[in-house]
Design goal:
This protein has 5 helices and 12 strands. The protein is α+β, with helices and mostly antiparallel strands and 218 residues long. The protein has one domain. A 3-stranded antiparallel sheet has the order 1-2-3, covered by helices on one side. Strands 8-12-11 form a 3-stranded antiparallel sheet, covered by helices on one side. A two-stranded parallel sheet has the order 4-5. Strand 9 and strand 10 form a beta hairpin. Helix 3 runs antiparallel to helix 5. The termini are far apart.
Amino acid sequence: MDIARRTVVPVLALSLVLATAPAQATAIPAPRLAAHVADVPQAKLGASYQRGCPVPPGRLRLIEMNHWGFDGSVHRGELIVHQDVVRPLLRVFAQAFDGRFPIRRMRVMAEYGGSDAAAMADDNTSAFNCRRVTGDPRALSRHSYGDAVDINPLENPYVDGSGGVHPAAGARYLDRDRPVKGMIVPGDVIMTGMNSAGWQWGGRWQPPDFQHFSADGT
């Protein structure tokens, strides 16, 4: 009898401890920006690069990085940029990721045959594309140098000198007093990051280019 009592008591005591001890929550780390930078394969340039472009392919870099989508999930995107702006742009997109700023999609311009109109209509965020200015074929776009980025062009449309809206479906977002998901507004994480990097916003121009940021302000 004494032996049985000595065996039961410790088991009951252990059960009491397990029942009353608070559960230890396992901390789940917040997702962070993950990026990989490499030389640009020819296939990723495609029609976005032609002979005579102001920046040779060897000075461009392919950034693969994750971003928040409009669906609240993390997606993997790609940007081609000039090698000199990789670091500041990674800082900007890291802040955007931490702030959960949504980006519809981020694909290289080769997937659109170098067509800015097609990329804007698809609400694609992009950077390098050796081309003329949309709405002004006389001028070479700053995207030809790889130090300009267009973000969520549908929610942040471009208005050309003739009053045309690009993409056309973006006309409903010209009223900036009613922010929507993916819209760039003063003081948000995109603006704050770009300002810290010294990049300027085309949304301050007349007419405005709400999707556009560039290193030299053009």
